Amino acid sequence: MAENSFNSDKLISENQPNPSTGLTDSQRQRLQQRHDILSAEWQLRSDKLKKLRKASAIEAGEAIKFNLEQQILEEETQLAQLEKELDEIEQNLNLGAAFSKNLAQPIFNKPNKVCNALARQGLHSQSWTYDELGYCCSTQWLDIGSKGPFGLANNIALYAESEIASTVQIIKLVLNINNEASKPIAIHQFNKFTLALFEELSLLIPDRLMPSIHEETPNRFNQDYGIVELKLEIYRIKTWSVIIKF
Question: At residue 241, does pLDDT exceed 70?
Fold first, then answer.
């Protein structure tokens, strides 16, 4: 009788929702298993993407380079889909906030590391310094494509700033469109740099951010770690920015 009572209690426990999550134990276990599988696949694809980018950067042959770029786009799409599903699972498991906080807090507290988050992509930053407006760092502008009518190529740079010495509060990835003729190449590179930035910072990328860049549509996202904004400013030229505010 004692054994039957134990098994009965266990069965009830496995099929009763946890008051704090609304999930049964068996549902939580299945979700966690799915999360682990997707996380492993995400890591494999992320490693593959880094290798493809490295190969593309040094490849001289146009045909091979084109093939590599197509593979890169495919991997970026797959990663975005995986991140969306992982985000949904983490929300169901009540892991989303803890996951983002645990990953984000260390990187926020390392300004010089944030400043050089895209060093492997060619954006090398000055050191984290103080001026009359606060603490900041920036990279040099990296040209993309040929020069436009004003003698400037499309270019991209990374900025970080804060009112506090020990913590980054705002990150900006900025793209200037100085040559409309080569804008598609610039937008494609902006997309790649954005994905690399979130990867290097270990931040979950908003579901609609990459599609919004492809569609050239400004957007704004509330994330567990802060606000992400895709912003367009038009003066003499168009300037796109991905802004992360913590």
Answer: yes
Give the DSSP per-residue string, the chain: -HHHHHHHHHHHHHHSPPTTTS--HHHHHHHHHHHHHHHHHHHHHHHHHHHHHHHHHH---HHHHHHHHHHHHHHHHHHHHHHHHHHHHHHHTT-HHHHHHHHHHHHHT-HHHHHTTTGGGT-PBPP-EEETTEEEEEBPPEEEEEE-TTS-EEEEEEEEEESSTT---EEEEEEEE--GGGHHHHHHHHHHHHHHHHHHHT-PPPTTHHHHHHHT--EEEEETTEEEEEEEEESSSEEEEEEEE-
User: Across residues 83-88, what is the average pLDDT?
Assistant: 79
Q: Tell me whether residue 193 is exposed, middle or buried, using C-beta atoms within 10 angstroms of its C-beta: 0 to 12, 13 to 18, 19 or more.
A: buried
* CA separation for the pair 216, 228 (Å, rounded): 15
Helices 25-58 and 2-15, interaxial angle, to 10°?
Answer: 50
Would the pTM of this model clear 0.90, i.e. be above it?
A: no
Q: Report which of 200, 198, 183, 185 is spatially closest to residue 243, judged by C-alpha positions.
A: 198
